[in-house]
Amino acid sequence: MRIETPYKVLLGIIIVVAIIGQIKDNIVSKNEIEKCYKENYTFVYKQETLSDNLIKQFLSQLNEYNYSEEKDKKDSDEYQFVDSIFIPERKIVLQANHKSKTVQIARIKIGSREYENAQILYQHGYQILHDKKKLSEKEIKKLLNKMEYDHDYMLKKDMKNKTLTIIDP
Prior knowledge:
This protein is an alpha+beta fold. 41% of the residues lie in helices and 31% in strands. It has helices spanning 4-38, 52-62, 113-123, 137-149, and strands spanning 42-45, 48-49, 66-72, 76-82, 90-97, 102-109, 127-130, 133-134, 154-158, 163-167. The strands form 2 sheets. It has a 6-stranded mixed beta sheet with strand order 2-1-6-5-4-3, with helices on both faces. The protein has a 4-stranded mixed beta sheet with strand order 8-7-10-9, covered by helices on one side. The longest helix has 35 residues, at 4-38.
């Protein structure tokens, strides 16, 4: 028996375990979102409450995405799903608040952490400020496009006033 054979077998086992783990995480996370639906959570997308029919459509669309990451917080959980596990371009971020029984949905393009956070907060209704002025929708989209490839922007979030200040590099 060649020395390479045990390594190939070990590599094969590692790959199978990783795939099984990914499938399990995918199923568990989607079950958590469906549990929120069954417990009558309010689903909100772009500041609009989704009807029952739209929630069902969204849940079926979610089946085409792969689980990526989960963040547990005090009163909420965040689930992230990507369109591809190999070269993801888009992401769905769901923030389930168990206190208020709401699920906030954001569909974003993948980029720097600041770029992704700015997209999420914008979709959640935060006012976007830049150079101490409120931006129009056209100006926001232009700034977000610039942020996609530039990782040096900084964000200042004011939860009380629901504003997000974007600071240039």
